Amino acid sequence: MKITAIKGMSDILPPESSVWRGVEEKVRQIFDSFGFEEIRTPIVEPTELFVRSVGETSAIVEKEMYTFEDKKGVSLTLRPEGTAPVVRAYIENGLQAKYPVAKLCYFGPMFRYEQPQKGRSRQFFQIGAELLGAESPMADAEMLILLKNIFSGLGIEDVRFEINSLGCAVCRPKYLEAIHGFMKGKEKKFCDDCQKRAKKNPLRILDCKKEPCRELTEAVSTISDFWCEACRKHYREVRGLLLAGHVPFKENTRIVRGLDYYCRTAFEVLCDRLGAQNAVAAGGRYDGLVKDLGGPDIPGVGFAIGMERLTLLAPLIHDSRPTIHEPMFFALLGSEAEQAALSVIQELREKSLRVESAYGGSLKSQLRRADKLKAKWVVILGENEVKKGVAIVKNMHDGKQNEILMGRLVGELSK
Ligand SMILES: [Zn+2]
Ligand SMILES: [Zn+2]
What we know:
By secondary structure, this protein is of the alpha+beta class. The protein is built from 16 helices and 16 strands. It is elongated, with a radius of gyration of 28 Å.
């Protein structure tokens, strides 16, 4: 029986993997310029971490997690998102003592048991950033400026930034009450999911994609009517800084984010080229999360970018290794030629040149492969050449060839 990949989990093959590498390289440069350092956390975490952070009533925890027991019966979960693991690591390693403001970025796969569709898979790759230890609107703004730099750095200019404020522990409960009040008597008109949300997390009703729910919630007052003075001020300052930082944005009071731990600034980055699943990045502020997970009362703000969607938008990015194009090809006939060539090949590769060698077969088939690899130079070595201590070097662009002494080969080829 043929073994295939798990539904919703795909292989990234060349040459697409070269786009991925190019995108990652560029994003890493931009993270460097903002002082973000990489953190690598395990792919598996205790299930409790996500139940407590993402929230018991969230769609992720309710039905999308890959949860299983290890051999000792401990419940483990493949991470469905990157923020909770970073915050767990931050607390566990006491990073607040080392970094008054910690700026951490991550690259890695996440897992959610969702219906696979274009732009959505069960294993998906995220690039994320978390800034811990700063309450200032400057931190929120910098995260959005960082995102803007990432997109323009990748040549993606047609993204939209949408922002909102989700209020805080003081003002949000009043808004939730208002939603409750609004729904009273109309519960049955909402979809099953929203009826459940009404009890546990009514804010999510605004996020429902189903048309009847969307129409019903048109009439709900917006959260902006309920912001407390501190939230208003924070949001005003964020907007001012975004203007100063040349981040064009639109306010959208329906952005609620799917995760429980967000407060105040929430944002999404959208691109119409992606179709229905048009969000390419999202994030926001999560001031209570570190404390909720047993750490000190430290604020945080972060975002995650969907790598699959990002690479769809930046298909012209390729990794920048100069040696990857136009390899040299060594056509080798017989084991003596292979032995004679190896130390030369090794020396060339040590100079970071890309060298391909033949693995047997006729000269004709070897040259065919060299052609396929777009080799500019082919070094041909057969029994005769080995005896004479020379190699034939052929320029595949103009077809000219020369005999070169083996001892001079590295010097000639690395010119
Ligand atoms: Zn507030
Ligand atoms: Zn609904």
